[in-house]
Amino acid sequence: MSVILHDLCGADPDRRFSPYCWRVRMALAHKGVAHEALPWRFTDKAAIADAGTDKVPVLRHAGRAIAESWTILEYLEDHWPGAPSLFGGEGGRALSRFVNTWSDAVMMTGIARLVVSDIPAHLAPADAEYFTRTREARFGRALPEVTASREREVEGFRRDLHPLRMVLRERPWLSGPTAGAADFIAFGPLQWARCVSAFPLLTPDDPVHAWRGRLLDAFGGLARAAPAEDLG
Amino acid sequence: MSVILHDLCGADPDRRFSPYCWRVRMALAHKGVAHEALPWRFTDKAAIADAGTDKVPVLRHAGRAIAESWTILEYLEDHWPGAPSLFGGEGGRALSRFVNTWSDAVMMTGIARLVVSDIPAHLAPADAEYFTRTREARFGRALPEVTASREREVEGFRRDLHPLRMVLRERPWLSGPTAGAADFIAFGPLQWARCVSAFPLLTPDDPVHAWRGRLLDAFGGLARAAPAEDLG
User: Disulfide: which of A13, A37, B17, B46 matches B195 by Cβ 3.0-4.6 Å?
Assistant: First the structure.
């Protein structure tokens, strides 16, 4: 197959949980690009070193190795111009970048504080040691301490989703009449959480919850079929 | 003149400070639509009642009266299709709506808590009474109490601008190669503050500050020429 994605996995090679890889997997499905998603672990640095990075996603196509999810989305849009658009034009491309910085700053950061302690149990031993050590250094405390108050702190996270919720009260997708890159960018962090943690981030009556459900169902239920913990 | 904008003003009819009206004024300038911006005060409800609203902006064109800034931006895009685009295509239009909900939830709400007590001094007496009464009801306390801790609370507001800042570190405009609706939507609340309060919302080394400066200079310095308090 001519397109390969290096895709983060847990001890179970079918547990694919990277939010950044999910952005790309949804985009590949949207574009209808046939590909192989190879399992990759945090400690497999050598397998992607030629892409000049130590993190996935890395996409391989036509002799190139492309790192970083946003760069990959732009690459897909530019190299498969005849397939359904990810951005819906140049204005959509520019503003999808804002959705990306918003999703990283608000969703990734917020969700990490709510689920990070649930992740090591899903990892192969060497990855669990690597993950725990690097994340404890980042947070400055043990991972169970980071999430100890999550029952209370999830309220703040839900409030921070208000701009997304306001749009989804009016319309089914963020990107336009159909789902697109901005939807996949915001979905990635929620799918990350779903794959590693049973902690309920969203209430069932939240328009964000319903939108997540539509994205889980998209592309023949690609994301819903993934091994996961939060089945709500 | 065939296009009229009802535009909120203070006791001085030249002090135009509505964040929502500024979104529309910048969009009218971007489109090059000749218009008259008529001064309107909070208590002039009768002047806009035919638009089915009690708030400005209201745009009059071709016998129609159109309320609500987002609706007006879409109207301008659709009725002046040959003029420079506000959205850069359908994807940009959809995601500008997300920027609008983000700007309202994060910027408007955040800035209101930092500057609201500075507004009544700029208003005509009947408006000052109306504004103080309605806003104190909204906040549940006296306006000087709302802003009493602003020297400290501005730090949180600046942190909340991080998604915007991340984009503006990479590129000059939010909307694409040129400024567009998303820029004007995020600029409106900052221009609101600038017109009524000397309190510095942004530090001079912030990419958001530099971007605000570019928008103040746009269209021959339209926004910079407006009577204002924060001249930084």
Answer: B17
